[in-house]
Amino acid sequence: MRVVVADDSVLFREGLVRLLAEKGHEVLDAVGDATALQEAVERNQPDLAVIDVRMPPAMESDGAKSAATLRARHPELGLLLLSQHIELHHVLPLVGTPGFGYLLKDRVLNLADFTAAAERVATGGSALDPAVVQALVLTRSGSALDDLTERELDVLGQVAEGLSNTAIAERLVVSERTVEAHIRSVFTKLGLSDEGTNRRVLAVLRYLEAH
């Protein structure tokens, strides 16, 4: 895949560039501010933009704001946001759209998982840190999510990350049949259709946005 990386930390930015290159991906540009990010995407037309949420010039949510602008201009562009902290205000309109991911830097401990998430987002999938999903849930009270068991919420978090049933089973150390049963129960309780991995992820996330 063809990638543009945007992060104001030189060490972190160069680390991402090296990691992606070692995995066989083409890093077209690596920049340190939101303005340069916009220009790099327009110039290179990448498959994926890896974006730090807080960047110059304002050092607030410039990366998240730029991501929203880029999505409007380039609907097919994959957007993978990285942050030290969870920032939902400017991110919510993007959550649930194809080709969007949001990972916390401190929780990116497995490089293989990170590159898999990047590749998934670049091809229209999703990748959300479980902590981000939890934050979305906690901002909605009195919803049908209250009817879910702790295990069902756990499985829902894995689904929202974009993982397959097989991957969820491996991560939770349960059978794939058990995962399927939990997912059926989740969608029954939420009144959502269980048709296709991407569709069910988007449905869950949009449900979270609306409640």
From TrEMBL:
The modification 4-aspartylphosphate is found at D52. The keyword Transferase does not apply. CDD domains: LuxR_C_like, REC_NarL-like. Keywords: DNA-binding, Phosphoprotein, Transcription, Transcription regulation. Residues 141-211 form the HTH luxR-type domain. Transmembrane segments: none annotated. This is Two component transcriptional regulator, LuxR family. It comes from Nostocoides australiense Ben110.
